[in-house]
Amino acid sequence: MKRVLLVSVLAAAALVACRGERARASLLSGDTRQTITVDGRSRTYWVHVPSSGARAGLPVVFLLHGGTGSAEGMERIAHFNKVADGHSVLAVYPEGWRRSWNDGRPNTPAAQAGVDDVKFISMLIDKLTADYAIDTGRVFASGLSNGAFMSQRLGCALADRIRAIAPVAGTMGTEFAPTCHPSRPVSILEIHGTDDPLIPFNGGQDKGRNGGTTDVSVMDTYALWQSVDGCPSPSVSQLPDTANDGTTTTVHAARPCTDGSAALLYVVNGGGHTWPGGEQYLPVFLVGRTSRDFDASETIWQFFASV
């Protein structure tokens, strides 16, 4: 039964990806497609300049798509361009290698090809600094699923360059987590649904590519970052249940932590492998519910702006 579910999810994801390729020309027509060579590979990324225009000192948010996904699909699911326009943010959508990221787990195509995605993002920061004169003190990373795992890895490996991360529906692989030793505190806002059918909230075997792998639980990942950031015990509260959509959200907030950092966790009770407030990109029976009680993209930016 699990195998059937995985095949169904991957097949549906492939259809969504194909649809995304056809729609890309129109949905990203206002953005620019650019490339950079990393270790002999041509890597693609899209840059969305906010409607207020390009100017020196803009903050940057990297939006990392999920496995089998694309830059266009990430923007469509998260609608982050709208948030970027509203708050004068440079939104950057890198493309993974063969639609995947080397996020520290061994099962993705990027990992199996030995792709250095940490180097890719680090070089992108240099390129964006040269091309757009970005505020290098306000560089942030978020992502969904495989992209969420990758944002966790960036927080571990590029703490000197990335101020905060916001992974959605992704934790850390069990082999990678013990290697996470950031050079300084990195603020985190983690969002995860308790009914995620692909990346289990309580950890263990996931339903990723090539048979999947094992992951750290959400609560243990959150505890790791609280320790890294030197946080006090978190307060716990509930968001208003405004949508009545079968989900509720519990907020764990540990702040202030060392050097003004913060560690927040949004537990979406009844939520699936989804982006709250975003597109229900696959049917509920495949990926679970998308909560409508809050907009993850707006919440993520407000968090980034506060740290």
Radius of gyration: 18 Å
Provide the β-strand percentage band.
15-25%
> Helices and strands: which structural class?
alpha/beta
- Low-pLDDT ranges: 1-28
Q: Could you spell the SSE succession in H and E letters?
A: HEEEHHEHHEHEEEEHEEEHH
* Number of helical regions: 9
Give the total of beta strands: 12
Helix coverage percent: 25-40%
The backbone outline, from C-alpha atoms, is globular
How would a textbook summarize the main sheet? Answer: 10 strands, mixed
Q: What does the average pLDDT come to?
A: 91
Query: What is the end-to-end distance?
Result: 44 Å
Strand order of the largest sheet: 1-2-4-3-5-6-7-12-11-10
List its salient traits.
307 residues, alpha/beta, 10-stranded mixed beta sheet, two-stranded antiparallel ribbon, 33% helix, globular, disordered N terminus
Protein architecture, described:
The protein has 307 residues and is of the alpha/beta class. The protein is 33% helix and 21% strand. The chain has nine helices and twelve strands. The protein has helices at residues 2-27, 71-78, 80-87, 109-112, 117-132, 146-157, 218-229, 284-287, 296-306; strands spanning 32-38, 41-48, 60-64, 90-94, 139-144, 164-168, 187-193, 204-205, 214-215, 235-238, 248-254, 263-269. The strands form two sheets. It has a ten-stranded mixed beta sheet with strand order 1-2-4-3-5-6-7-12-11-10, sandwiched between helices. A two-stranded antiparallel ribbon has the order 8-9. Helix 6 links the parallel strand 5 and strand 6 (164-168). Mean pLDDT is 91; it is low at 1-28.
